[in-house]
């Protein structure tokens, strides 16, 4: 189990991590999400042992050391994939992967390199020098380098950020399924809601160096405690509950995702359409209500300036009323 207790860190006088505590069981996958600059990378660096943090981090009975305690900073049983890929540019892709397979007999090595490259759909590039790879291809090789050693704990910093949408889904399935099979514990810093919702057992939301929420992804999604949390999953509207459900007689507000709102004749929430954005299966409609921006999904294009009424299902959303 990974355990952080009261971990704090500052580069100068401004604290970047503020008393972070959580545990993560072996084999579980945790997403760390939050606005840019909230401290996700710094958290991964502290766990890997690259920073002189305060507090304590342990993996089972091993304490994570700090840079001053080691000749080469970083723990050998952890693999950290940072946002820079660090490939050897003049070496072939297969050699870049092979370097991370040190304790494997030579006759098994080629098969293992092939198997790993297939997982990220890079087997056709095995003999190419890394310097000729695109950014996304380099990232795919860096991912398999991280997997090659089968670490006990894997730390991934935005691991699919350079990979096109078309490949990303397949790669994510391959990689996270592989990690589960091998019982490798994993922490992923990400901005991508799909990584949180589809591939994590747990999620941590960070804001300005603090943990705002630590929950299962579905609980986080359906019960966001604040607009900040909900916004990490997409567009969010904040509406007075009274306007949507007058009989409630409440001055509380409710956070709504675009799919929570639907057009209904006679609905009490009246909005003016600003713009419709085609999103494939429907439109994301931006609208305005007394100067407040709102978003809802609609199956057809709605022209600018038309007025529509919007409803939302109270029974489904009552848990989301602000306290
Ligand atoms: N070497 C450094 N010296 C001083 N400040 C730093 C240094 N590295 C990072 N920071 C600051 O620490 C804060 C947290 O940065 P960090 O990279 O952890 O954020 P992040 O959540 O990973 O952001 P992003 O999502 O943009 O990658 C930022 O304000 C950043 O400017």
Automatic annotation (TrEMBL):
One of its GO terms (molecular function) is ATP binding. SMART domains: AAA. SUPFAM superfamilies: P-loop containing nucleoside triphosphate hydrolases. Gene3D superfamilies: P-loop containing nucleotide triphosphate hydrolases (3.40.50.300). It comes from the Bacteria. Keywords: ATP-binding, Nucleotide-binding, Transport. Pfam families: ABC_tran. Residues 2-233 form the ABC transporter domain. PANTHER family: SPERMIDINE/PUTRESCINE IMPORT ATP-BINDING PROTEIN POTA, SPERMIDINE_PUTRESCINE IMPORT ATP-BINDING PROTEIN POTA. This is ABC transporter ATP-binding protein.
């Amino acid at each position: 189990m990974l355990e952080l207790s009261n971990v704090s860190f500052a580069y100068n006088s401004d604290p970047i991590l503020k008393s972070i505590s959580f545990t993560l069981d072996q084999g579980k996958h945790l997403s760390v999400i939050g606005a840019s600059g909230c401290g996700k990378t710094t958290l991964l660096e502290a766990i890997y042992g690259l920073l002189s943090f305060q507090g304590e981090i342990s993996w089972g009975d091993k304490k994570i050391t700090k840079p001053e305690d080691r000749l080469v900073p970083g723990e050998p049983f952890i693999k950290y994939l940072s946002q820079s890929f660090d490939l050897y540019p003049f070496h072939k892709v297969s050699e870049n992967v092979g370097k991370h397979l040190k304790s494997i007999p030579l006759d098994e090595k080629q098969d293992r390199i092939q198997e790993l490259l297939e997982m990220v759909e890079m087997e056709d590039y095995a003999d190419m020098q890394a310097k000729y790879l695109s950014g996304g291809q380099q990232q795919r090789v860096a991912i398999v380098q991280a997997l090659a050693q089968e670490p006990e704990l894997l730390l991934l910093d935005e691991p699919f950020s350079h990979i096109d949408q078309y490949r990303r889904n397949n790669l994510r399935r391959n990689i996270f399924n592989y990690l589960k099979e091998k019982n490798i514990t994993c922490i992923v810093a990400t901005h991508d809601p799909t990584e949180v919702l589809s591939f994590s057992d747990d999620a941590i939301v960070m804001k300005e160096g603090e943990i705002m929420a630590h929950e299962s992804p579905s609980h986080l999604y359906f019960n966001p405690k604040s607009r900040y949390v909900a916004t990490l999953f997409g567009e969010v509207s904040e509406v007075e509950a009274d306007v949507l459900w007058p009989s409630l007689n409440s001055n509380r507000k409710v956070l709504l995702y675009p799919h929570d709102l639907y057009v209904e004749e006679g609905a009490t929430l009246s909005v003016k359409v600003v713009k419709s954005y085609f999103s494939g299966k429907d439109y994301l409609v931006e609208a305005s209500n007394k100067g407040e921006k709102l978003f809802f999904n609609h199956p057809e294009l709605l022209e600018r300036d038309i007025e529509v009424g919007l409803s939302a299902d109270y029974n489904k959303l009552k848990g989301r009323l602000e306290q």
